[in-house]
Amino acid sequence: VDPFSALSLAGNIVQFLDFGQKLLSKGKEIYKSAEGTTTTHIELELIYDDLWAVSDKLAARAPPSPANYSSDNLTDYRLSIVDDQISQLATSCQTLAQELLSIVRELRVDPGSKHRKWESFRQAMKSLGKKSQIEALQQRLNAFRDEMTIRLVAVLGDQQSLVLQEIQKLSNENIRLDLNSKDRLQDLTKHIDEVHDMIFGRLEGVIANIEREKLVKATSVESDRLAETSIKGNDETTDGFVTPDMVFDKLTKADIINGDRLAKNTNIQRDKSAGSSSIHRDKFTKTTPIDLNELAKKIHDLAVRCREISKEQRILSSLHYPYMYTRMSNVVKAHFETFDWIFEPDCDVGFVQWLERNDGIYWISGKPGSGKSTLMKYLYSHPRTQAALKKWAGETELVTASFFFWSIGTQMQKTQEGLLRSLLLSILKQNHSLIPVACPALWALKDHETFPEDLWTLDQLQITMGAIVEQKQATSKFCFFIDGLDEYAGHPADLFEVLYSLSQSRFVKICASSRPWNVFEDAYGESASTKLYLEQLTRGDIELFVRSKLVGPTRLATLALEDVGFNALVDEIVARAQGVFLWVYLVMLSLCDGLINGDDVRLLQDRLNLIPSDLETFFRLILDSVDVVYKVKMAETFQVIMESSEPLTLITLSFLDQRDLEARLRDPVSAMDNYDIFDRHNKTRRRINGRYKGLLEITHVPSATDYFGYRVDFFHRTVRDFIRSDDI
C-alpha cells in the first residue's frame, strides 16, 4: 500500500474518531436528561448514519502491506511497518465502531412510533445502564486518538515522513520529464504543512499524557522503594517521610522520565513553600484541543490531491519515451533578426492571418537545407505566434504542441506512435483536467494496479487523441507544429490521414513543414494563402547572416570599410546560396578559417571560387579533404552509423575506434568509473572533430546517464542522403 493509501485510511480513522466522540457525547446527553430532546435524538440518528458509513470504509480498507519488504530499502521498510500499524488500528476502530453502533441501535427512537415522547423517555432510562460502558468506550476512543496522532506523524510529520518522500519522488519526476506539476506540488506541500501543524499541536498533548502515565507509574514504584529504604534507616529520606519532590528528582536523574520535556508539555509546577516541596499534578496542561472533523476533512482532501497528482504523473510518464525532445533541442536556433519578416504587416504569405483566424493546415515547404526546421522552431517558441493564436482561441484555453520528425533518429522519432505520444504528452501536461477525459480506463485503475504492457498502441493513441479533439464543448483549442513530414518512416498517405483527421476538428489547426515533394504539393499546395516556399523568402536573412559572420568582434572589423570587394563577396554568397542556409553555413566555416589566418577579401574570394554551388559536390569536396590516413576508419564509422537503427552513443564509437576490436571484446568485463567515462568521451570527441571535417555531430542528451549522455550522427539529413548515394 502506498503512503497516499495509508494517508487515506488514516483519514477514515480520524473521521471515525470524530463520529465516535460525537456519538458518545449525544449518548451522555440522553442519560443526563429525563426524557431526551427531539433534537438530540435527530442528531444521534445522523451520527449513526455517518458512523455506519465510515465503518464500512474501515471494513473495506486495503489489506496490510506484504511482509517481504527488505530492510535494505528503508522507505519501503518504514512504509510496511507504518502501514501495518495503521491497518491494525483501523481493525480496532472498526471493532469499536460495531460496538458503538450496537449501543446506538438500542438508544434510537422509532420515528414512526405513536408514543414518541414515551419512547424517548424509555430509551433515556435504558441508557442509564449504559453509562459505565460509554465511559469505557470514551477511554478507548481517547487511546485510539493518541495512537492515531503518533501514526500520522510517521506518515507526514517531517522531512523523513513517507508522504513527503513520495511527493519528493513526484517532484523529481516532474523535473526530469518536465510534466508541469511544480505549482500543484508546491500547493500540496503547503496543504501538508497545515495538517502538520494540527497534528503537532495535538502531539504535544499526547507526549504529556505519556509522560504523565510514566510519572504516575514510576512514582508509585519509587515511593515504595524509598519508603522501604527509610524503614531500613537509609538517610535518603527526611525523618522517614517520602516526599513527591524526592521521587521526581530520583526519576529524572535516572532518566526514567524527561523532566524538562515533562515540565514543558505538562506545565508541572514545583512548589517549595511552607518548608516542603510538592508536584501539583492537577496543573497538567490539557491536551491541545483539535477539531477532528476539520482534521479528517483536511487529511481526506490531502489524500485525494496526492493520489490525483500521482495518478496524473503516472499517466504522463507512460507517454514519455527516450529522446522525445532531442531533435527539436538540437535544431539550430534562428540567427538574430532572421525570419522576423513573417510577422511583418506587409508580408504576403498569410501566416499571421492563418494564426489569428483560419483553421486547417498551413504548409511550409523548402529545399533541403533551406532552414525549415529552424523556422519551425522559431515560430513555435515566438511570443508573437502565441499572441496571434490567442486571438483565434478567444476565451478558451490555448494549447500548443510540437513534433520534429527525424529520419536518422530513433524509431519513435520517425513514426506515428512517436508523433501522437509527443503531442498527447504536451497537451495533457498543459491541461491536466483533460487526463481523465482522454484516459478514462487508466484513470479508473487502482493505485496498485499496473498498466498493460502494450498500453500505447497506435489504435489506442488515436482513440485517446480523438477523445480530446472531438469534444462537443472543448475548453481548449490546439495548434500543432509538425516539422519534417518527409522524414516520416512510413507511407506519406498514412500520415496525411492522421493530420487530416486532426485538422477536421474546429478546435485544431496544424502548421506542417516538408520538402517540396509531389505528394505534399498535391495534399497541401493548392491554396496560396496557406503555404510558403522558404527559399524564395530568405535572401535578406542570408545576407544578414553572412555580414554578421564576416564582420564581428573576432573578425576583421574594418574589412567592410577598407575594401570595396567586400560587398561583392557578400552578394555572390547570397546569390549562389539559392535560399539554402546549410550551404551558406558550410561556406562561412571555410571563410572564417581564412579570416582567422588573416586572409584579405581577395583570398576570401579565391576560397569561395573553389567551393561548389550544390551541396552534393560540396560534400564530396569535404570528403576528399580528409587525410588519407583517416579515410578507412571514416568509411567504417559511416557504415556503422548508417546501419544503426538509432544514433550511436559516443561511448560506443570509442570502442569501435580501438585496434584489434575482436581481441578487446574477449577482455574481462569491468565497470567504468566516472574518470574512465570522461576520458573515453574526451578522446573520442577530439577524434571526431579532427577527422570528419564537421560531417558528424555530437549532441548531449540531458535526460540520459553520463555513460549514454552523448549521441553521434550526421550533422544534417542531407549528409546521410549523400553518403547513401550509389556513387559513394
From TrEMBL:
Gene3D superfamilies named in the record: P-loop containing nucleotide triphosphate hydrolases
Domain DUF7791: 625-728
All residue ranges annotated as the NACHT-NTPase and P-loop NTPases N-terminal domain in the record: 12-141
Keywords: Repeat
Domain (Nephrocystin 3-like N-terminal): residue spans on this chain: 338-515
PANTHER family, alphabetized: AMELOGENIN (PTHR10039), NACHT DOMAIN-CONTAINING PROTEIN (PTHR10039:SF5)
Name the UniProt record assigns to this protein: NACHT domain-containing protein
